[in-house]
Amino acid sequence: MGAAFVLEGISFLQARREVRRGALSAEVSRARFLDQTSDPTLRAVFFEDTAALIGIVIAVTGLALHQATGDPVWDAIGSILVG
Fold this sequence. Notes:
The protein is elongated and about 50 Å long. The model has no long low-confidence stretch (mean pLDDT 94). It has 4 helices and no strands. α1 (2-26) packs across α2 and α1 (2-26) runs antiparallel to α3. The chain has helices at residues 2-26, 30-36, 40-69, 73-82.
């Protein structure tokens, strides 16, 4: 999970940097730039990486709560939320 988080994080930071650069260049907000950009790859990578990072955090939280409490329901809840 740690390796996945690091790799997705690196990709996310690169996409975020490109969004920031494009927004500054177009003199619009980052949200508007993402909405109006003609580069579907940038948009897809940015949102996919965001979703992946959120999913990893949810999964790790579910696993950690399972380990801390001994109750497997936390792992199940984490799996459901990621799905």
